[in-house]
Specification:
The protein has 3 helices and 8 strands. By secondary structure, it is an alpha+beta fold. Strands 1, 2, 3, 4, 5, 6, 7 and 8 form an 8-stranded mixed sheet that branches. The termini are far apart.
Length: 149
């Protein structure tokens, strides 16, 4: 069964979809990564939410921002795939779909991300290049990465 990708504004999300997205982000970013931080940051309202449903459950998500809402360029954030589904290449599908949706909705080719350092090679595979020194965000090493055309 393939994953079904959907893109919605914050106001278009159903309460069930929003709940599943926030639960997934909490499961991974707070519990799995053992990181106490404020995930609900008042940026969800500005973002487009790309999410993937698999067997009726939201198992992947990213936030997409137009230029100027987060970085100078368009950006992708809160990239997450449920742990039990990471062996299915859904992370690669999520990034590919995120890039396509930014091009579709914002007519942009330039994208900036704040990537967890351990995912550097993953993002390089998708064409991102490192554009900053390592820095700590919520006590986790990160780097800024960009795709520019």
């Amino acid at each position: 069964m393939p994953i079904i990708w959907k893109t919605k504004t914050f106001d278009e999300l159903s309460t069930q979809e929003l709940y599943q997205i926030l639960r997934l982000r909490s499961e991974v970013f707070v519990v799995e990564q053992n990181c106490v931080y404020q995930d609900i940051d008042n940026k969800d309202q500005k973002a487009l939410h790309l999410f993937g449903e698999f067997e009726g459950e939201i198992i992947a998500h990213s936030r997409l921002f137009k230029p100027g809402d987060y970085f100078e360029f368009s950006s992708i954030g809160r990239v997450v795939v449920a742990e039990k589904h990471r062996d299915k290449n859904f992370g690669h599908e999520l990034i590919n779909q995120s890039i396509l949706e930014i091009k579709k909705h914002f007519k942009e080719d330039n994208i900036t991300i704040s990537a967890q350092l351990y995912l550097k090679k993953f993002y390089e595979f998708h064409g991102f290049i490192t554009t900053s020194e390592e820095y700590l965000e919520d006590d986790i090493p990160h780097i800024e990465m960009k795709i520019t055309k």
